[in-house]
């Protein structure tokens, strides 16, 4: 198994630098006095989420000319691969679950991708069929060393901007973001505690780390959470990374997620989708160590109607 190193992340950072936004680490003056709060707003990326880093990392690492790429995703990875592929003149074929928010489906199509909708739990199978038909290269959402390395560039930037960071809170779904950021923080800020965060209704990673083996939660069970981007489960590759780099996984309720979306909007003037707000929700629980705390706002692609509903309380 090829595990990602800090050198892999630095190499990815060099390759993707012309293509992605180096997001600022923004101080949140309303944070707790003993835990100064800093926000890494990945909603400012061109596709509204961190996934563009991993997409460009994977595509720029391909050997030889490629005409077709295939991806499966509930939304943000789909948009990222579609956007990156269009940048390089490649055709993108994106498999998305039928329950994906329309705002994410429309955005993926707007980048020129062909979208193939599928039933719940079928996206990997359907994507494999698309690969067979098109001869395209598969770019998975997290189970890929170059994707993990690309997401890890967020940790590289946090370490550069806040070397004294004491706690880093990272949304967890398939585990690519937490794996990459965790590798970077462990290498560059060894004093920092690194926690993954996931919804209570999709807490398979928390269970997996407790038991030492990957838990398999049914799709219908994971799909209960409002955080549609956090319904995947870690792969063998990402789970191995998470076991090495995380101090633990914190879980948050649906009400806490909604509250964090409101807080980002009303206090931080930042739009966050529910999946992107879980790190702030965990911070608000108050159980993390004192000292500077960085939370990753992983994405801001939210249906306007849902945002209106959440802001109305």
TrEMBL record:
* An example Gene Ontology biological process: D-serine biosynthetic process
Catalytic activity, per the record?
Answer: L-threonine = 2-oxobutanoate + NH4(+)
GO MF terms here are: ATP binding; L-serine ammonia-lyase activity; magnesium ion binding; pyridoxal phosphate binding; serine racemase activity; threonine deaminase activity; threonine racemase activity
Database matches in InterPro entries = TrpB-like_PALP, TrpB-like_PALP_sf
| Highest taxon of the lineage | Bacteria
* Cofactor section: pyridoxal 5'-phosphate
Recorded E.C. number(s)?
4.3.1.19
Q: Which SUPFAM superfamilies match?
A: Tryptophan synthase beta subunit-like PLP-dependent enzymes
Q: What CDD domains would the database entry show?
A: Thr-dehyd (cd01562)
Q: Which Pfam families match?
A: PALP
Annotated Tryptophan synthase beta chain-like PALP domain ranges read 18-299
Q: Which UniProt keywords apply?
A: Lyase, Pyridoxal phosphate
The text of the family note is: Belongs to the serine/threonine dehydratase family.
What does the function comment of this entry state?
Catalyzes the anaerobic formation of alpha-ketobutyrate and ammonia from threonine in a two-step reaction. The first step involved a dehydration of threonine and a production of enamine intermediates (aminocrotonate), which tautomerizes to its imine form (iminobutyrate). Both intermediates are unstable and short-lived. The second step is the nonenzymatic hydrolysis of the enamine/imine intermediates to form 2-ketobutyrate and free ammonia. In the low water environment of the cell, the second step is accelerated by RidA.
Instruction: Name it.
Output: threonine ammonia-lyase
The source organism is: Mycolicibacterium chlorophenolicum
